Amino acid sequence: MTTLNIQEVRKTISRNKRSQYIFNIIGILSMLFGIVTLLALLFDLITDGFPRLSWQFLTSFPSRRAEEAGILSASVGTLLVMFVTSLVAIPIGIASGIYLEEYARKNWLSDVIEINVTNLAGVPSIIYGLLALGVFVYGFNFGRSIITAGFTLALLVLPVVIVSTREALRAIPNSIREAAYATGASKWQMIWDHILPYSTGTILTGIIVALARAIGETAPLITIGALTFIAFLPEPPITGQFPYISFSWLLAPFTVMPIQMFDWVSRPQAEFQVNAAAAGIVLIAITLAMNAVAIYIRYRLRKKIKW
C-alpha cells in the first residue's frame, strides 16, 4: 500500500469517527428531550392530581360535584373490558403467530398475510372503532356494551400480539428444533415442549405492552358509544345461586378511565381538571405496574434459558 493510500484510509477512518461522534450526540440529545418532556408532564400531573387521591376518590361513583366524584365505575369498567380483551386477543394472537411462523407455507399468500398483519398494527385506532360499530354494535346486536368494547380493543392489539409472537418464535435457534426432531418429537411436541417455553418471556412482554396500549385507548370506545356518566356497577360474574356464574355483565353499559378523564377535562370547572389529573395518576400507575410485571416475568424466564 502506497503512502497516498494510507493517508486516504486514515482520512476515511477519521471521517467515520467524526460521523459516529455526531450521531452519538444527536442520539443522546433526542433521548434526553423525550425523558425530560415525559418527566415534566409527570411532575405536572402529580402536582395537580396527587392531593385529590384518597380512598373516597377510588371508591366513589361520578358526581356532578367535583369534590364528591370518584372513579369506581370507570376503574371496574376498565378491568372488565381488559379482561374480555385478554381472553380474546391472547389465545387468538398466539395461535395465529404460531401458525404463521411454524406451519404456514412460505408463498405469496403468507407474504400477503404477513404484510397485512404488520400494516394493521399501524392503523389509527378510530378505524377499529368504526369497524366495531358496524360489526359488533349493529351486526351482532351486542349494543354499546362491555363485550363490544373488549372485542374492539382485542382487534386493536391483535396484530401486536401476532407480530411479537412471531418475533419470539423466530429468535429461537433452529438447532433446538432439529434436536427435538432428532429425538422423534412431532411438530406440535417440538413447539409445545421446546419452542414455547423458551419464547414465553418475549411473548408475555409483547402481550403486556399491547394491553398497556389498549388500557389507554379512548377514540374507538367513544366511537362505539361508551358512556361518560355511570353511577352503578354491572352484575358480578359470580353469583350466590346456581349456576353461580352470570354473563349478564358482558352486555352491561360501561365506561373506562380514559373516557372518564375525557369527560372531566371537557368541563370548565377547575376542580374537575384536578379529578382528571388524579385519574391519570391511577391510570399511569396501572400501566407501570403492568410493565413491571412484564419485566419481572421476562427476567425470571430468561434465567432458565440455557443454550
Automatic annotation (TrEMBL):
Residues 75-294 form the ABC transmembrane type-1 domain. Keywords: Cell membrane, Membrane, Transmembrane, Transmembrane helix, Transport. GO terms for biological process: phosphate ion transmembrane transport. One of its GO terms (cellular component) is plasma membrane. The chain crosses the membrane at residues 21-43, 71-100, 120-140, 146-165, 195-212, 218-235, 242-262, 274-297. PROSITE patterns: ABC_TM1. It is a multi-pass membrane protein. It holds the Pfam family BPD_transp_1. GO terms for molecular function: phosphate transmembrane transporter activity. It is found in: Cell membrane. Its main location: membrane. Belongs to the binding-protein-dependent transport system permease family. CysTW subfamily. PANTHER family: PHOSPHATE TRANSPORT SYSTEM PERMEASE PROTEIN PSTA, PHOSPHATE TRANSPORT SYSTEM PERMEASE PROTEIN PSTA-RELATED. This is Phosphate transport system permease protein PstA. It comes from Nostoc edaphicum CCNP1411.
